Amino acid sequence: MTTTNSPSSKSKASSSTTAAASSPSPPTAEKGVVIGRLTVTLTCCQPFKVLNGGVSALIAESTASLGGYVASGYRRVFGVQLSTNHIKPAMLGEQVEAEATPVRVGRTIQVWEVQIRKIDPSTSSSKVLLSTSRVVLLSNMEAPKEMKEYEEKIKKYARL
Q1: pTM for the whole structure
Q2: 10-19, 40-49, 121-130: which range is least confident on average?
Q3: Between the N and C ends of the chain, which has fewer C-beta atoms within 10 Å?
Q4: Please, what's the b/e burial string for 77-106 (b: 16 or more CB within 10 A of its CB; e: otherwise)?
Q5: Where is this region: Disordered (predicted)?
Q6: Full set of structural domains in the chain with CATH
């Protein structure tokens, strides 16, 4: 996991998101963006060997929530709205990448846009859009003391 603070004191974060039987990919970070990757396994597929739409929503909310947690100064975040549009399928064995970008980071409400793309294994740079999500987070509550250990792990593996 990588977290970086930009000169304007906005936060950057990166996460590798995986499902059972899927190996994590190295995280990457760009300005205020959280990136997570997932290899489509039977665990996250519909019976037709297609990535389940609920898994896409899970990845979208998870990447946005991690970004919101860091951007809020490690405050508790809650998803209050999630809207996902599925455009194309991802099949069993394919790798997808979720990129969460902050639209607005306020003291109380944060809005994140998440795009999930299929990674072309031959180039790793050509990516086909699979779904888009808009995630709205509430971020005005102090995190519980139990989260301090999680915060420290994020900071430990961060590039600040």
Answers
A1: 0.78
A2: 10-19
A3: C
A4: bebeebebeeeebbeeebbbbbbbbbeebe
A5: 1-30
A6: 25-143 (3.10.129.10)
